[in-house]
Amino acid sequence: MPLLFFVIGLSLAVGAEFSPSIETYPRVRYQPRLSAQSILGMWESQFKQRKLPEKRVVAVWGLADEGESLSENSQGLSLARELSRAGAHVRIFDPRWGQDEAGKFLPQAEFVENLLSACQGATDLVVNSDLSLFQSPDWEKVKTAMKGKLFFDCMSLADADKVRAADLAHFPIGGHGWPPWLDEEYQNFVEILLHKTKPQDRILLLPSSPLTTLSPRARWYLLLNYAAAPRKLLIGGPSNASGTAPQYQDWVRERNRQGKLKGAALDSILEETQADWILWFKQSDDFKTSDWQLEAVR
C-alpha cells in the first residue's frame, strides 16, 4: 500500500472558552458499552482466533466508584455485564460487594475475595472503578498470577510506567480531558523535531511495535503533522489514520495485521516515498518522548 502525504488542518482553540491550564480539564470516561466495544475491538486486532470472547477470562476490579451505592447502572458492573454478554468468563473482585449483593445483576459472573484471586489464570484485567486499592497494587504479582498480559485501564489512574515494567500491556480507555497539544512532553518533542530536521524534509512515520490502543487520542501524528509543517509527514493508510474513530480503529487493526516493516519491504517503501527520516513510534494516548525515535535515512 503506497504511503501518501496528508494535510490535516488543526486549529488551536482560542477565545474565552479555552484554558491553557491542564488542571482545569476533567478526565474523560467512556460509557461502559463504548469501553466494552474498545476491549472487544482490541481482542479482534491482537488475536487471530474465532469466538474470541469465549476464550477470555477477564478479571474485573471494582463494580462502582468510591462512595457510590451499587446499582445495575454502576460503571464497573455495567462493563462487566457487557463483557459477560459477549461471552467472556468474568471474575470479579470488589471489597464492598460479593455474590450475595451483586450476583443478581451478574448471574454468569464469578466472585472472588481478593485482587490476586481475580487475576489467577486470567487473560485480561479490567479496572473501571476509582477505588485507591486498584491504583497501585503489586503489578509484578498481578502479572505472575495472570495467564495473559492485557490490562484495560478504564480510569487511566494506574502508573503506566510501573504497569509496563511488570510486562503488562497497558491499554488506557478514556483518560486525559485536556487538549493534547498542551502536553509538555509533546511540546518538547516538537522542538526536538524542528531542530533536527529541515523544512523541506520528508518524514516517514512507522510503528516500532504493535499498536496497543484504539483511543483516537493516541493519534499524536496528527498534531505533529501540523506542528512540523512545511515538513511532509508520511503514513500508510492516511484516510483511515486521520478519519473517524471507527476508521481509525480499522487502521489500527490493519497495521497490526501487516506487522513491522523491515528488510526489503522497508527498503522498498523508503525508495518509493523518498523519505529523509523515519520516525518510529510506540502508540499511547499519553505522549512520551521515549516512544518516538527519529532515524536518518540518508
CATH architecture annotation name of the largest domain = 3-Layer(aba) Sandwich
Distance between the termini: 23 Å
CATH topology name of the largest domain, in short, is Rossmann fold
- What order do the SSEs take from the amino end to the carboxyl end, as H and E? EHEHEHEHEHEHEHEHEHHHEE
Report the count of strand segments: 11
Low-confidence stretches: 1-16
Number of domains: 2
Largest sheet: 6 strands, parallel
Strand residue content = 15-25%
CATH superfamily of the largest domain: NAD(P)-binding Rossmann-like Domain
Gyration radius over CA = 21 Å
Helix count from the secondary structure assignment: 11
Fraction in helix: 25-40%
Shape: elongated
CATH class of the largest domain, named: Alpha Beta
SSE-based structural type: alpha/beta
Main-sheet strand order equals 4-3-2-5-6-7
Output mean pLDDT.
Answer: 85
Report on the architecture of this protein.
By secondary structure, the protein is of the alpha/beta class. The chain has two domains: 141 residues, Rossmann fold, CATH 3.40.50; 119 residues. The protein has eleven helices and eleven strands. The chain has a six-stranded parallel β-sheet with strand order 4-3-2-5-6-7. Helix 8 links the parallel strand 8 and strand 9. Helix 1 packs across helix 2 and helix 1 runs parallel beside helix 10. The longest helix has 15 residues.
Distinctive features:
11 helices; Rossmann fold; alpha/beta; disordered N terminus; six-stranded parallel beta sheet
